Amino acid sequence: ETNMFKKRYIKWVLLAFILVYIGAATIPYIPHKEVNETCKTSIQQTAFYADKTGTERVDYIDDNTDALLYRLHMIEEAQNEIILSTFDFNADDAGKDMMAALLHAAQRNVKVKVIVDGISGFLDMRGNSFFKALASHENIEVKVYNSINLLTPWKLQARLHDKYVIVDDKMYVLGGRNTMNLFLGEYMEEKNIDRELFVYETQENKNASIHQLKDYFNSVWNLSDSKQYTCEKINKKIEESMHQLEERYKKLQKQYPDAYKKWNYEQKTIETDKITLLSNPIEAENKEPYMWYAITQLIKQGNDTTIVTPYIICGKEMYRDLTNLTKQKKKIDIITNDVASGANPWGCSDYLNQKKKIWNTGVQVYEYMGKHSSHTKALLIDDEMSLVGSYNMDMRSTYQDTELMLAVDSKELNKQMRQEVEENKTYSKTMGKDGEYTYGKNYVPKELGIGKKIMYSVFRIITVPIRGFL
């Protein structure tokens, strides 16, 4: 009986520990914060529009191979400094392409700084000889934001979701692409469709968005939560990885010759009146929803908004804000993945559960069925304002993660993007007031397989208590 009592006691203690641990990881994020008055005033007083052409030009990158070419070219052009921030960095083909280019830049005395989120740091970088080879070079610094630490469960939910590359004070690319095969190059048949902006500075301007972005990077880089990733000792495996990266660089010049030619940036880009960087708080904690507040303020300034997001996971405050906007006669269309093609099963499952609540806000949802799943995060407001970046329309992006979006005042960019989203609507289905779906002329239904049907049935139950953390 004593042994049975001990076993039961141990089980209850273990169960209590698990419950306390889960609580420590989740409870700090359950109450959603409101934006403070200082931030509200700052956003409300920000002039997002300008009445004359600015100094920054942009290109809209809508192809995965072009996205890799831009990165390789930019790194090759660097004279002084390269900054790379990414949520996910894999040592796959695309990731090694980037590492090879960065290593070669460092070997010609360019200073390189790389920051990666703690999840990728734990799953992809920890002990990896290629990342160790990269970090071993004297001109390369690598940091991991909010490294996975099981002793601080209250920090596990806060992630670095920013994706950008900056070269000198001259150019940068920012959007939603991670550094891996799924988003860069043509290394996989299955890939995610994404969008980002290349921004080129034509003349020195202290108010330009590139300086806003560099200031933002420095604030994240200098956080106590951003820890150094180092190579303590170079062994034979790391030396071999270094050699492979050097050889890979030589092959890149043959594989992607266009990346190593001289580019005419004026021809590749279009003019803008103004570019403004929007961001969330950077600390690894429950956040005030700066990004969501800024987006809703911009929507208020216009009449017709189209939102492109991979999935929709709204909390009650987001539902409230959407409802208030549509009551103010703001037309809001949302293009998101059809559940049959979405790459995020959690987001798809939550949409099946929340579909009526989303529609009841007064927005019009287009369920997109493309050849590949869309990972794009963008907004178009009237015919002038365009937003592109990393922000998903969900509670994680709103309250837990670092996020960046570029708000671009440019009629030409808006027109280019609007043509694309209107085309995407023809590949979508949308619900009418009678509850019946109508189908775009290019929409081709895709039947869910039995495996996916079972998975969604299970996930629709699982997601209910954890939907704020998906």
Write the layout of secondary structure elements.
Blueprint: H1 2-26, H2 37-45, E1 56-61, H3 64-77, E2 81-86, H4 93-107, E3 111-117, H5 118-125, H6 129-136, E4 140-145, E5 164-167, E6 171-175, E7 196-201, H7 209-221, E8 226-229, H8 236-255, H9 265-268, E9 270-271, E10 274-279, H10 290-301, E11 304-308, E12 312-313, H11 316-327, E13 331-337, H12 345-360, E14 364-368, E15 378-381, E16 385-389, E17 393-394, H13 395-399, E18 404-409, H14 411-425, E19 428-431, E20 437-439, H15 450-466
Parallel strand pairs: 2-3, 3-4, 11-13, 12-17, 13-14
Antiparallel strand pairs: 1-7, 1-9, 2-5, 4-8, 5-6, 6-7, 10-18, 11-15, 14-19, 15-16, 16-18, 19-20
Helix pairs in contact: 2-10, 3-4, 4-8, 6-8, 10-11, 12-15
Question: Could you list some keywords that capture this structure?
Answer:
470 residues, alpha+beta, nine-stranded mixed beta sheet
Catalogue the unreliable spans: none
- Could you tell me the mean pLDDT? 95
- Number of helical regions: 15
Strand content: 15-25%
Supply Rg.
23 Å
As a percent range, the share of helical residues equals 40-55%
Silhouette: globular
Q: Tell me the structural class.
A: alpha+beta
- Care to count the β-strands? 20
Main sheet specs: 9 strands, mixed
Task: Provide the spatial order of strands within the biggest beta sheet.
Answer: 8-4-3-2-5-6-7-1-9
Distance between the termini: 44 Å
